[in-house]
Amino acid sequence: MSILSISWVRNEADIIEDFVRHHADIIDRMVIIDNASTDETPLILQRLAEEGLPIDLRYDESPVHRQGKALTDVMHNLPHSALPDWILPLDADEFLLSDLGSIQESIATLSPDHVALLPWRTYVPTPHDNAGELCTTARIQNRRERESPQFHKILIPRRYQNTAYHIPTGSHQLKGDDPILMYPSPHLALAHFPVRHPAQIVRKIVESWERYQADETRLCCDGFHWEQLYAELKNGPLPTRERLKDIALFYAANPKEDNSIVHDPI
To answer: How far is Cα 205 from Cα 95, in angstroms, rounded to an integer?
Structure first.
């Protein structure tokens, strides 16, 4: 069983090595498109590729957040003779997990006729985290107890890896001219670390929203969670550690929910 991941990354130096090493023994080939990073993300990826990790590093200098098109282009341009059994669109802050032994065993239980939906488990930094721990997944060990709404990302079987289908921005679904069978995976999930440091979340929100606005093809709801935080983080001081926790608790979530956290290290 072969698995190909496709990722669009920008300024993820604090987490990109953790991301690659976590998936290197799971995924056969990782296509990673660096979108004009201005931090050390490209250098880290080059070093990891030279180390022999299964990275296919590419570059996109577009000033627009064109993630969906970039990932779809990768899927459409794969040689038919080299199509993987599964394609997994992944952001750099997402870590594939299994509740059933190995990840390969969990994927083997999935139907090749269905797009699998992988639920987010959003992790939340707290003021009690060990600030000296550089590894994100070791430092941030608490997650939201409930996801409301529950967002999913897609795992695409081979039968849908053709030009009749495309990956929208966010990779929360697959779209196409024909009906698409999509079902939640019973054993797989994605640990999601969107909020990690005060300076990181400010840059993520401000840059992402401004690049989203430059995309004339975006839908009105795309990036809604970035728009909600944009004014506060662009013009205000860096968030405190307490505010950082609140941002993560309600990141792309219903603000009316009484969210709580549970200790669940990956």
So the answer is: 20
Give CB contacts under 8 A, 24+ apart, made by 243-250: 244/125, 244/195, 244/197, 244/198, 244/201, 245/124, 245/125, 245/126, 245/127, 247/195, 247/201, 248/122, 248/123, 248/124, 248/125, 248/194, 248/195, 249/124, 249/144
Closest CA to 225 of 240, 209, 236: 209
Confidence of residue 166 (pLDDT cuts 50, 70, 90): very high
Q: With a threshold of 0.85, does the pTM exceed it?
A: yes
* Runs of H (alpha helix) within 167-260: 198-213, 224-235, 241-249
Name beta bridge partners: 58.
Answer: 33
Pairing assessment for the beta strands 188-192 and 175-176 based on DSSP bridges: unpaired
Confidence tier at 135 by pLDDT (50, 70, 90) = very high
Task: Tell me: pLDDT of 83 over 80.
Answer: yes
Tell which residue, 160, 146, 29, has the closest CA to residue 90.
29
Per-residue DSSP letters for 64-118? S--HHHHHHHHHHTS-GGG--SEEEE--TTEEEEESSS-HHHHHHTS-TTSEEEE
Whether pLDDT at 229 is above 80: yes
Which residues on adjacent β-strands are paired with residue 56? 31
**In whole angstroms, what is the distance from residue 13 CA to residue 18 CA?**
10
Closest CA to 27 of 102, 133, 77: 102
